[in-house]
Amino acid sequence: MRKTIKKQIAGLQIEEPIEVFWNDAGDLDGFGDETTAWRQYDEALNALKEIPVKTLGYFFKATKYSLFMVHNIEYQESKEKYIANRCVIPIGCITEIKRY
């Protein structure tokens, strides 16, 4: 699967619209000191989870470990382009990429 994802990424063009399915690290249960305080081992293992995420945007750049996207590209009559709402997704967390 990883080779397929990396091949897909290698074939992407800058500003190409894509939809990325990936798994984010789950929030640990609790707030503040609850996440850093001592906890029973099995209870801590059971609390860990992944959050499936779907991110839409435009391909911007890829490195060995990261896929960079932007959500907005502003086109003006000037020669300069502007982008906004950048994000980065670890390539190892990606499960699927859809091209549009």
Find the structural class using helix and strand composition.
alpha+beta
**How far apart lie the N and C ends?**
20 Å
Oligomer type: single chain
Mean pLDDT: 88
Low-confidence stretches: none
Give a structural overview.
With 100 residues, the chain is an alpha+beta fold. It has one domain (2-99). Helices cover 16% and strands 46% of the residues. The protein contains two helices and five strands, in the order αβαββββ. It has helices at 2-10, 41-47, and strands at 17-25, 50-62, 66-74, 82-90, 94-99. It has a five-stranded antiparallel sheet, with helices on one face. The protein starts with a helix and ends with a strand. The model has no long low-confidence stretch (mean pLDDT 88).
What's a quick, concise take on this entry?
The protein contains two helices and five strands. By secondary structure, the protein is of the alpha+beta class.
What are the salient characteristics of this protein?
single chain; alpha+beta; 100 residues; 5 strands
